[in-house]
C-alpha cells in the first residue's frame, strides 16, 4: 500500500536518511525503531510529504507522492512527537478547527468529533481548555485530531513519551483497536520496546540513517540465535575481571549492570567455566548467574550498540 524506494535526505553535508526501503501492507501495523538521530522523524516527514527527499521516492498504491502529495494527504493521519494544539481553545474547538483544515464535510464533522473524542476517552472533557489538560490528555487530543478524516494510514511518532500510565494504556488500546477493529494501517515509533512488541506485526530498525534490520519479532530474534546472553551477579566489581572477560574469544559484548555484568557471547560450552576461573583468579565470587532468553531489546543493542532509550 505504502512504500519508500531508495529514500534519502541530506542536510548540508550530513546524510540523515540513506537510501531506505520500507513498506506497509494494507491493514498492517509496523514499528520503526532507532536511537536518537537515527533518521526516524526525517523519514516520517518525507513519507507524510512535509519534507521533500533529496533522492528516492514514496509511493502510495504504486503511484509517486513526491510531485503530487494530494492523494497521500487524503488518506494519511500523523500524530507528531510534539504537541500540536491550541492551548487557549477547548478540546472540541481544536478538533472543529482541524476538521475544517482536513475539509471534513460540515454535515459530518460534528458526529465525527464526538466519535474521535469517544475513541480517546475525552468526550466528557471536550469543553475544557487544552491548557488545563495533562500531557497525556493533550496527546490523546492530538490522536483524535489525526483521526478526524478517517485516515487509512496513521503515523504515530513516539505518542507516549512523558505521559501518565493511564493515558499511555489508553493510547495503546486506541491504536490496537484502530488496527484490529478498523483495519487502519499503522506506522509506529517509540522508545518503549514493549509497546512495539505489543502493537506491531513487523519492525524496521534504523541506525545512522540506514535500515539495519527488518522482519517479524521471530525473524529479528533469530539474529541472536547463535548467541547467549548471560546475566552475572558478583560479590564486588573489578576492572581486571571485566577486561579478562572481554578478552575471551566467544565474548562479543560486556556491559556493567548495577550488581554485576551482562555478557553477550557466541554459543560456547566453555564460557561459564572460563568465567568462573577468571573470577576466582581475582578473588571474586559469582553470587548468581542466569542465561537469558534474547529479547528485541537485545537485538536492538546488538545492532546499534545502544539501548532504545539512548
From TrEMBL:
**Keyword Transport (UniProt):** yes
GO molecular-function terms, A-Z:
ATP binding; ATP hydrolysis activity
Tell me where in this chain the ABC transporter domain is found: 2-233
SMART domains in UniProt: AAA
Matches recorded under InterPro entries: AAA+_ATPase, ABC_transporter-like_ATP-bd, ABC_transporter-like_CS, DrrA, DrrA1/2-like_C, P-loop_NTPase
Alphabetically list the UniProt keywords: ATP-binding, Nucleotide-binding, Transport
Which one GO biological process term can you cite for this protein? daunorubicin transport
Q: How does it sit in the membrane?
A: Peripheral membrane protein
Gene3D superfamilies named in the record:
P-loop containing nucleotide triphosphate hydrolases
The record's comment on protein family reads:
Belongs to the ABC transporter superfamily. Drug exporter-1 (DrugE1) (TC 3.A.1.105) family.
Can you say what this protein is called?
Answer: ABC transporter ATP-binding protein
Q: Which organism is it from?
A: Oceanobacillus halophilus
Amino acid at each position: 500500500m505504502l512504500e519508500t524506494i531508495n529514500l534519502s535526505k541530506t542536510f548540508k553535508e550530513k546524510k540523515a536518511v540513506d537510501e531506505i526501503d520500507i513498506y506497509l501492507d494494507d491493514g498492517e501495523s509496523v514499528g520503526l525503531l532507532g536511537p536518537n538521530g537515527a533518521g526516524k522523524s526525517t523519514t516520517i516527514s518525507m513519507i507524510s510529504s512535509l519534507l521533500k527527499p533529496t533522492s528516492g521516492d514514496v509511493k502510495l498504491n504504486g503511484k509517486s507522492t513526491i510531485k503530487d502529495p494530494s492523494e497521500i494527504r487524503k488518506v494519511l493521519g500523523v500524530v507528531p512527537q510534539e504537541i500540536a494544539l491550541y492551548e487557549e481553545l477547548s478540546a472540541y474547538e481544536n478538533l472543529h478547527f482541524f476538521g475544517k483544515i482536513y475539509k471534513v464535510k460540515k454535515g459530518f464533522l460534528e458526529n465525527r468529533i464526538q466519535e474521535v473524542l469517544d475513541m480517546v476517552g475525552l468526550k466528557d472533557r471536550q469543553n475544557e481548555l487544552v491548557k488545563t489538560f495533562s500531557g497525556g490528555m493533550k496527546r490523546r487530543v492530538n490522536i483524535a485530531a489525526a483521526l478526524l478524516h478517517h485516515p487509512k494510514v496513521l503515523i504515530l511518532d513516539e505518542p507516549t513519551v512523558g505521559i501518565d500510565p493511564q493515558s499511555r494504556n489508553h493510547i495503546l488500546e486506541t491504536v490496537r483497536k484502530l488496527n484490529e477493529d478498523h483495519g487502519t494501517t499503522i506506522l509506529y515509533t517509540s522508545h518503549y520496546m514493549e509497546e512495539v512488541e505489543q502493537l506491531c506485526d513487523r519492525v524496521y530498525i534504523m541506525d545512522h540513517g540506514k535500515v539495519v534490520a527488518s522482519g517479524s519479532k521471530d525473524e529479528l530474534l533469530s539474529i541472536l540465535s547463535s548467541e547467549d546472553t548471560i546475566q552475572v551477579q558478583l560479590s564486588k566489581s573489578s576492572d581486571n575481571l571485566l577486561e579478562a572477560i572481554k578478552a575471551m574469544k566467544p565474548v562479543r559484548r560486556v556491559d556493567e549492570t548495577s550488581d554485576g555484568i551482562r555478557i553477550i557471547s557466541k554459543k560456547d560450552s566453555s564460557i561459564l567455566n572460563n568465567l568462573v576461573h577468571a573470577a576466582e583468579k581475582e578473588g571474586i565470587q559469582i553470587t548468581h548467574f542466569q542465561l537469558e532468553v534474547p529479547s528485541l531489546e537485545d537485538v536492538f543493542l546488538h545492532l546499534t550498540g545502544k539501548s532504545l532509550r539512548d
